[in-house]
Amino acid sequence: MQLQFYKYQGTGNDFIMIDNRRSEIQLSEDQVKLLCSRRFGIGADGLILLELEPGVDFKMVYFNSDGKPSSMCGNGGRCIVAFAAQLGMISDKTKFIAIDGLHEAVLLPEETVSLKMSDVRQVEKHEDHYFLNTGSPHVVKFTNDLNDFPLVEEARKIRYNERFKTEGTNVNFIEKQNGSLFVRTYERGVEDETYSCGTGVTAAALVASLEGLSNTKNACDISTLGGNLKVSFEKVLDQNFYNIWLTGPARFVFKGEIQLPEPTE
Q: Which of 46, 73, 157, 205 has its CA 20 to 30 A from that of 189?
């Protein structure tokens, strides 16, 4: 099968975009995994199908690089908005549906997209970490010397512990650095560190707010290995966040075609 694709990245979190408005493309788990492979395929943290959905501009269908359907991806959500604009489907604003519900987004100058995230109504506070769902599940922990921190080793102890080993969780380690919050994320489904994670930095910003470490009462600047993001929000009490917006770059990388083997029986 000859497959046309587009490659996008948002702060180093990279995605294969496929225009599936005709609903002609159905990919197996193995095919998605191959496409996302950095040695044998295109290479990406995830793959996204853009499909049509009544009542909104489009539907986002997201797969992790392990080939499995996954929960919401914030950077992928911003990138699919840029992709829809490239296809001529939208101009400066959009509404689309993803696995966690309806999202709004605004296209800003300099290849920047602001995406409205799902409300967060509960944050679990534990002795040494927080747990919350920002469209995807996230553990958030503070640490020191995050630049040299053995993130993958430490994150896997959490991701594969008794609570999370079946469904999985993303794991974020955060540290206040130079006036912003530095975040490093281990993503389930990728099973490794990524350069950035949109739902992860959102989770980190909300936790920083609870700890009094936000830049302002309702916003937090985030730095990641792949670049900078901003999360703004409003909250009622300590564990009820709404009007959450994730803002940052969403950039087209290249377009191409690949010959994809047919799925095996």
A: 205
pLDDT in tens, 48-92: 999 999 999 999 999 999 999 999 999 999 999 999 999 999 999
159 and 63 share a domain? no
Give the span between the Cα atoms of 155 and 148, in whole angstroms: 14
Let me know if 197 is a catalytic residue. Answer: yes
Amino acid at 45: D
Q: Is 36 a catalytic residue?
A: no
> Of 36, 79, 197, 220, which one is the catalytic site residue?
197
pLDDT digit string, tens, across residues 7-28: 999 999 999 999 999 999 999 9
Q: Distances from the Cα of 227 to the Cαs of 60, 121, 162, 201, 224, in angstroms?
A: 24, 28, 33, 12, 5
Closest by CA position to 145, among listed 173, 187, 171:
173
14, 109: one domain: yes
Per-residue pLDDT averaged across 189-200, rounded?
A: 97
The one catalytic residue among 36, 73, 79, 220: 73
